[in-house]
Design goal:
By secondary structure, the protein is mainly α. Among the domains are: 81 residues, no CATH class; 33 residues. The protein contains eight helices and two strands, in the order H-H-H-H-H-H-E-E-H-H. It is extended, with a radius of gyration of 24 Å. 15% of the residues are buried. The mean pLDDT is 80.
């Protein structure tokens, strides 16, 4: 049973619940979200019996590791599973704040085994967590690549950066096309007698 790939699927389910994983944004029209690669990473990590230490490091800061691999960048999708609101009239700065608070609360629940929601409004009654520490220090950290998108009749929403995940065949084709583009660009960038304006070079012979 331990050798079965279904082992990882079985134990990934409660973990993905804690990571608030979903295949949609979770707001309004609940638009689809492409996050299944993170789900597959969790299943694979469990099937490979990855140490909990590495399991933790890669999910919290996989994209910040030196020379981070594509798989480690995918692992950091743990903090990309927060709700994403694209409803008309959304305030991007407010959503940035709510997303940050959600990430703080989720980190505390999963890895510290405690709740920090209390400290969003007042100092924690039973633990040394202050409102100032939680609401000023942690959520002020922004994710790299955050930007604002406009859509439709002026609707604005917070857009998180995407990660391209081509198949090996697609990656090979991409490199082939990029090499062809580079060759053509080199030709375009090379000046010839006919490409130089006549007033600077004279009439070509």
């Amino acid at each position: 049973m331990l050798a079965s790939p279904h082992y990882g699927e079985r134990w990934a389910r409660p973990w993905l619940d804690m990571a608030r994983y979903g295949d949609s944004n979770g707001f309004e029209n609940d638009a689809p979200r492409v996050a299944w690669k993170f789900r597959d990473w969790v299943i694979d990590a469990l099937n490979r019996d990855m140490s909990f230490k590495q399991f933790t490091i890669e999910q919290i800061a996989g994209d910040m590791l030196p020379n981070a691999t594509l798989e480690q960048q995918i692992a950091s999708g743990f903090h990309r599973n927060t709700l994403l609101n694209r409803e008309g009239g959304t305030d991007p700065e407010e959503q940035q704040w709510l997303s940050s608070v959600d990430r703080v609360n989720t980190t505390a629940t999963v890895w510290l085994g405690t709740t920090l929601q209390c400290a969003q409004c007042h100092n924690h009654k039973f633990d040394p967590f202050t409102q100032k520490t939680i609401t000023v220090s942690w959520p002020s950290l922004t994710l790299p690549g955050m930007n604002i998108r406009t859509e439709g009749q002026g609707d604005i929403w917070q857009h998180e950066p995407d990660l391209l995940l081509p198949t090996p065949q697609q990656e090979a084709k991409r490199k082939e096309l990029e090499a062809g583009i580079a060759r053509l660009q080199a030709v375009l960038d090379t000046q010839t007698r006919n490409s130089i304006p006549r007033k600077l070079y004279g009439k070509p012979k």
